[in-house]
Design goal:
Layout lengths: L9 H10 L10 H18 L9 E8 L2 E9 L14 E7 L12 H14 L2 E6 L10 H15 L6 E11 L1 H16 L6 E5 L21 H16 L3 H4 L18 E8 L3 H13 L4 E10 L10 H15 L15
Parallel strand pairs: 3-4, 3-5, 5-6, 6-7, 7-8
Antiparallel strand pairs: 1-2, 2-4
Amino acid sequence: MTAKKPRKDAFVAAVEKRLAPLAPPQGKTPQLRRSNAEAFDVVMTTELGIAPIDVATEEHTIPVAGHPDARLRVYWPTPERPAPGTKGSLPVFVYFFGGGFEIAGIDWVWWDASFRERARDAGVIVVAGEYSHAPEVQYPAQPEQCWSVFEWAVTHARELGGDPGRVALGGGSAGGNLATATALMNLDRAQRPVRLLLLEVPLLDLTAGHLDFRAQGPWIAEPLFRRLVRIIVTQYAGRKRATRLEPYASPLLAPSLRGMPPTVIYTAELDALRGDGEAFARTLSDAGVPVTCLRLIGQNHGSGSYRGFVPAADHLHRDVVTTLRTLHQEPATYPEVTPR
């Protein structure tokens, strides 16, 4: 029997058809791509009616030894910030945005709106960390910045009205790479309790050894996609293969994942990065780490952005929120298993 070609979700296709005439040209330099993408974030969110809801926020800039300072924004689930030390302290979810290491940030309308809604709907404090863009700043600055954001969030959790024993890490795409690198750093440096690692369409192997090019279907030729991946990786990690093999650059290639937090991973059928996320799920399972991986059929790398227009995007939000709500409960315990 001949395998059927993957098909794009009809709702995704409708949104993309609507947005296509509004999209700017890609841009030939990282700086132009960044400015065009930032402008399109405003256009897209306006067109789709995405706007930030009213929750309390607070910003900080923190030093990072040997690297540029890191900026972060704290989101509370209510319009008023809870008093420090409030009984029943809230879980804290530290999250890193995606954008191929070269675009996006916590000020983007879509990301800001998403952080606000997740904080409110899950009843958690979200700490959204910002890291420097490549190629102006390269690895290992970004994981070190994210580590500093995580450390700040844990050490200041009680001041924020949070519980340092109910902390989660998360990220999307390139941010998923950085969240996972931060979890590995925590194993190596501090071993602070992390209840959950939540990854959305993550990039986890900079060697491109786990990309599933079958997922791209007929929409983008494999040679062109490989070229785009090379550009993104080289801008971020440089040209040396040895750098790309480092665990904090390619967490999927870490010698051991034993002791990593329980992990939930979301992948998309029409996204070559599904290969990274799903291989990581198998590797975590082999290491005895509780892990769940969900593939969203008919979805692509960015279609989770289309809430209110794509049913699967709405379900993804509900599933993330439900997962984050488990931080209010006592953690599940599973029997120890022998790593494979």
